[in-house]
Hints:
about 750 residues
Amino acid sequence: MFLSKLEVHGFKSFAQKISLSFPIRSSQGFPITAVVGPNGSGKSNVVDSIRWVLGEQSMKHLRGKKHEDIIFSGSETKSRLGYAEVAMTLDNSDHTMPLDMPEVIIARRLYRDGESEYLVNGRKVRLADITMLLAQSHMGQRSYSVIGQGMVDHLLLATPKERKEMIDEASGVRPYELKRNEALNRLSTTKENLTQAQTVLTEIEPRLRTLTRMVKRLERREELEQELTKLSKEYYGNRWRSSNEAIQTIQHKEALLKPKLTELNTRRTQLEVRLRTLEKEKPVSTKLIEIQRAYEKASREREEFKEQYWRLKAASATHPAVPAQLKKIEVELQSVIDEHEGLLKRLMSKSDPFATTALFEGFIKKLRDLLHKHAAGVQPSVAKASEGQELESSPELLKMLKLIESIEKTLTSLREQMKAVEEEEKSGRTLLFALQDELRAVEREREHLERTLNESSLERVRLETRHEDLDVEIRRALNGEPEVLLAPPIPQLSKPLDELERTIEHLRHEIELIGGIDPEIAKEYATTNERFTFLNKETQDLTASLGELERVIANLDETMAKQFQKAFETISKEFSRTFVELFGGGKAQLMLLEAEEPEEETETTESAIALDRNIDISKSRSVQPSIAGIDIIASPPGKKLKSVALLSGGEKALTAIALLCAILSFHPSPFVVLDEVDAALDEANSLRYGTILKQLSHKTQFVVVTHNRNTMHMAQSFYGVTMSSDGISQILSLKMEEAEEITHD
C-alpha cells in the first residue's frame, strides 16, 4: 500500500483545490518526492493537511489555535471559504488495509459552523473507524508516519512514555491498544450497569417476597372458594331438588283431588235440586224440616268456622307464633263450650226437639257473632313466640278445636234425629229418603276430600315457605339465581347432607381466616416478578460479560507484551547499528524503564458487588503493562554522554534519524512524511541522511519537505510551493525524468 494522491481544498493557504500525485513503486523502490519552496510559501501546510486527514485533533500540532483557523480565511482578492477538505488516496492493491477495495480514499471535511465529516470512499464514518483502519495499516497521526518541524528534537527529548508509544506503533500493537481501551470502557460500563441492577434488585426483593406470600394466600383462597362453590352446589342442589320434588308431589296430589271435589260439589247440587223438587211433590213433615234446617245452619256455621280455622293454621305455617291476646278469647270460648254442652245434652235427650232446635239456632247465632268478632283479630295479633312452637299447640287453639269437635257431635246427633224421623216416614217416601241418604254420603265424602285438600294445602304452604327461605339462603351463599346455578345435572351427594354441611362451614371459616385480598395484587406480583427475573438474568449476563472482558483484556495484554518485546529487541539492535553507521562509530542503545507499583485503590463499591455476585475484583481491574517507557543512551565517537539532551543540534538530528530508521526497518510504514528533518544537518551528514533515505525507500514511500540540496538530489519528483501576493499557495510539479529530457533537448 502506498500514497498515490493528495487533494487539498480550502485548507489553510490553499484556497484553490490542489492535487499532488505520487509516483508508483519501481524496481529500485519507491521514488522519493520532495516538496520545496521558499520560507512562508506553505510547504508545511502540505504536511499539516496529511496530519489532519489522518485524524489529528490537536490544534497545537496543526499550528493553530481553533478549528476554524485551518479554513482559508480570505485575502484581498478572494473571500474566505466555508469549509476545508483534504482527501488522501491510497493504493490498496496488496490489501494492507483490511478493506476489499483496490483503492481507498480517506477524506475529512470541516465546516465553518464547526460541523465535521469523515469519509471512506465517499461513505461517512466515525473518527474511531478511521483510527482503527490506520492502526491496522501501520499508520496514524500519532505515529512516525508524519515527522514535522521540531519532531526530531521531540523524538529524543520526548518522555519515555511517548517514546514507548512510538515503539508500540511500530510493533503493531496499536490495534490491540484500541481494542483494549474499548474493552476497558465496556468493562467500566458493565460494572456500572451491574451496580445499578443490583441496587434495584435489593430494593424490589423484599416487596417481591411479600407479594409472593400474598399471592399464595390468594391462590389458596381461590382453591377454597372453588371447593366451597363445588360442595355448595352439591349441597344446595340436592336440597333444592328434594324441596322441588316435595312441592311437586303435593301439587300433583292436589291436581288429582280438586277435580274430584268439583265433581262432588256438582253431584251435591244436583241432589239438592232433585230433593227440593221431590219435597214439593211430597212435603216433608214439619219436624223433619226443622231438624234439617238446624242441620244446614250448623253445617254452614261449621264450614265458616273451619275456614277461619284453616286460615289461622295456614298463617301459623309461615308465622310460627302464639296470639298475644288469646287469653280473653279463651275465656269467651270456654263459656260458649259450656253453653254448647248443656244444649247438646238437651238435644240428645230428645225431650223437646223443637224447643231445642230454637235454642240451637240462638246458640249458632251467638257462636257466629263470636267468630266474626275475633277471627279478624286473631291473625294480625300473632306475635313472635319461642322458636319451634306452632299456633296449633297453644291452649287457646286447642279449645277452639275442641269446640269444632263438639259441633261435629251436634251435627251427628241431628243426622241421627233426621234418620229416625225419616224411618217413621219411610213408607211412601223411600225415594226421598234415598236421595237424602245419597246427599249425606256425598256430603261426607266431600267433607273428607275437602279436609284432605286443606291439609295438603297447609303442607304445601309450609314447603313453599321453606323453599323461599332456601332460595334466599342459596342466593346469599352462591351469589346468584338458584335456577341458573343449580340447573341440571345436579351432582350426586358425595357424603351425607349433615357431613357435607359441616365441611361447607369449615371451608367458610378458613376463607374468613385468610381474609380479603385485592385481586390487583396478582397483577402487581406478575409485574414485579417479571422485572426481578429480568434484572436477575441481566446481572448474571453482566457478570458473565465481566469475566469475558477480563479474559479479553488479559489476552490482549499478553499479545501486546510479546509483540512489544519482539519489536523492542529488533529496533534496539537496528538503532545501535544505524547510529554507528551514521556517526562512524560511537555507541547507542534503548533501555526499558519499569513502571512503579500502583497504589492500592479503595474498593468499597466494587467489593460490595464482588461479595454479592462472586466477582473477582482483582481480575476486573485494568492490567497496565509493567513498562513505563523507553530511555535513549547515545554517545557519539570520542564522547561519553549519558543524556541525549547534551548532544549538539546535528548530533540530535542524526540520532533521531537513526532511531527513525531503526523503527522503519522493523515495521515500515506505507509512507513517511518528513518536514525539514535535515535542517540542522551539515553537508556531510546530509549526504549520510540522503543515503539512508535511499536505502529505506525500498520499503517505505518518502515525502520530504526540504531546503537541503543533497536531500533534493535523492528525489525523483518535485512539487514546488509558491505564494502569490494575495496570500494563496500554489503548486508546481516536476519529475526528474522530464527535466532531464528538457535539458537534453
